[in-house]
Amino acid sequence: MVMSARSVRHDLVSVGDATVDVFLKISDATVHCTLNRRACLLCLRYADKIPVEAITRVPAAGNAANNAVGSARLGLSVAAVTTLGDDKPGREIAAELRKNGVAMPYVTFDARRGTNYSTVLNFQGERTILVYHEPRTYRLPKIASAFWVYLTSMGKGWERIVPALLRYLKQSGTMLAFNPGTHQLRSKTSLLARLLKTTEVLLVNREEAALLLKRSPSLRPRALLEGLQSLGAKTVVITDGPAGCYALREGDAWTMPPFPLPGVERTGAGDAFSTGFLAALSYGTGIAEALRWGTANAGSVIQKIGPQEGLLTLPQMRSALRKYPKLTPRPLL
What we know:
Blueprint lengths: L9 E6 L3 E7 L4 E4 L6 E4 L10 E8 L1 H11 L4 E8 L2 H12 L3 E8 L5 E8 L2 E7 L13 E6 L10 H11 L2 E4 L3 H4 L5 H8 E7 H8 L7 H9 L5 E5 L5 E5 L2 E5 L12 H14 L4 H15 L12 H10 L6 E2 L2
Parallel strand pairs: 1-6, 1-10, 2-8, 6-7, 10-11, 11-12, 12-13
Antiparallel strand pairs: 2-5, 3-4, 8-9, 13-14, 14-15, 15-16
């Protein structure tokens, strides 16, 4: 354990769906954007055969698995809460999690439904993801004590775990880091509001921030941060692709540029950032240094195909931070 002497079994428990990702690299496509450059369409010829230049298959992907694997590589004691299909892909995911040091007591297998799949279209270094969540009847298992619960993307019916999760957080004193997925962002129940009011760290990208607030993503970063904090989260972090990231905590706001690293494919950059950010807090850093950890981890991931190959170990993280000592967060006005 890395945070304190308080008796806990896990530094972090990652809750969410795991998937098998298949990456298709394509070049025979076009991108069309609106004037503000934030609403772009990937266009393929309709009813045609589109050539694929390369295929990469990644087991044990998805936001929760990416976070669990990345956190374990950074030296944290990590467990995953996820449901896998009782099939070959599900067993592959379980084996990959074990290989990376993720504890498995809360991983269950669904004999009726298969494993989740995502197809990732990689075009000019940016990704478009087609996500399929198998229907699940979600239940929160009895979780041992932990410093963090990292709640992230789940399919329809994810709300069923919220009452039990809120009770666990209250009784255990565990802190909640929330990185909402599509179904969570679009939730129309009051449970999302209750979760946000209990959230210690909210981690979203700029478009997700706008969706939560029902505002334009072109809103100033400080306004987006303050809007999200008004929903209840104590610390709010927004990633903004090549523009870097922003954070707000107790009235102090920062902005951080990315490290000058080449991008090959961007899938998992947000997960890598969140993982590095929370790991830094687990090791006792402040928010500003945690932004550097997140930036370093994301910068490493985008240099590889897939969300996990570039995830840093703790020695690699320290080495990456030493390379860019002058790239530090600055105040955000």
